Amino acid sequence: MTAQAVNRYLVVEEALRAAAPHALLDVARVHLRQLYQADAVQLLLADYALTMLQPVAELPYTSKPIPVNGSTPGQAFGAQQAFVEHRSGTAVTVHLPVTVRGDRLGVLALDLPDVPEPDDVAELTRIARTLGHEIVVAERDTDLYLQARRAARLTLAAEMQWQLLPGRSCGRSEYDLGGQLEPAYAIYGDNFDWSASAEHLTLALTNGMGEGIDAALLTNLAVNALRNARRAGVSLADQAALADQAVYGQHAGRLHVAVLLLQFELKTGRVEVIDAGSPSVWRLRDGAVECISFEDQLPLGMFEDTQYAPQEFQVRPGDRLIFVSDGVHDASSPAGERYGERALARAISVTRLLPAAQVPREILQQLSGHRSDRIPEDDAMVLCLDWHGTGA
């Protein structure tokens, strides 16, 4: 990168960091116009269902959304690389993925008078990433970007569940993760959580019993109890036991939470597992799909002072793990066939070439076809983990 390019990037970066939370796009527009001759700059954020890219505009409404499928911005979002779209004469629109540590937020679109040089595209891609980081920080102080993502109104339960998530995708050299909840605007009990350190990746997949706000409240209690225990530095078994006590202490056995806890050792691929409920695990290895079964243990909060014992299994570089809630594997076709029996294995195989961040959305779309678009009886969660290992 040339000294001029570095200087331009630093000017934009400093301006974004100094901008008011709601004014990030306005500040980006000013500097991209001055430094890169951008005629127009548009920020498109992925909606909760990951089917539309919503333009950020003045509150309380956004402009007309753009579908992810079949659009050039959607290509940039899905492939996570810049796309140059030719317009009239020499003018082009450059579509840049806005991504933070593997979490795909949306696309930054710039109208430029000429095709940019490869170094300029790389520099603009870096600016788009910086904008993404500032959006994540700004969401603490403004609703602008969260509102822009909404293609419809969220139920209160869904609002609670989406705010509880760590993100919808993330990536490190050892692994890539992607997850999705459905129905996106009315989810209630299903959720997923993750946390990584230098040595471990911990996953928690939860499903609070019931429907609506009651299920969302129950899941919030369980997830925060698990986080509290995890941050205390205790073992996986103790994390489950402490969360179990929290749920039982609140509901005295009347309500419980299904949970699947996993802790991956990043150096070796050794995994500790506590299977305390309905979320299930499927593995794609060397082209073969199989369901991995563990010893069933009691859901959180069913009885007082339940003790949990972890089991172990091993992941290898190249493995793909798919985690699904009962709203996926128990969903039935009009003919009564459970999705988890054959259709889920087929969906995992069909999506094997997609990156982890795209897999959950595709599997849930195939689930919708399996149900023949009938109204789902339960909410659904899919999480995809691609394991690369420490040699990646």
TrEMBL record:
Keyword list, A-Z: Hydrolase
An MF annotation (GO) of this entry: phosphatase activity
Domain PPM-type phosphatase: 174-387
SMART domains reported in the protein's UniProt record: PP2C_SIG
Keyword set includes Transcription: no
Superkingdom, natural source: Bacteria
Pfam families: SpoIIE (PF07228)
InterPro entries membership: Bact_Sigma-Reg, PPM-type-like_dom_sf, PPM-type_phosphatase-like_dom
SUPFAM superfamilies membership: PP2C-like (SSF81606)
Entries under PANTHER family matching the protein: STAGE II SPORULATION PROTEIN E (PTHR43156:SF2), STAGE II SPORULATION PROTEIN E-RELATED (PTHR43156)
Protein name in UniProt: Serine phosphatase RsbU, regulator of sigma subunit
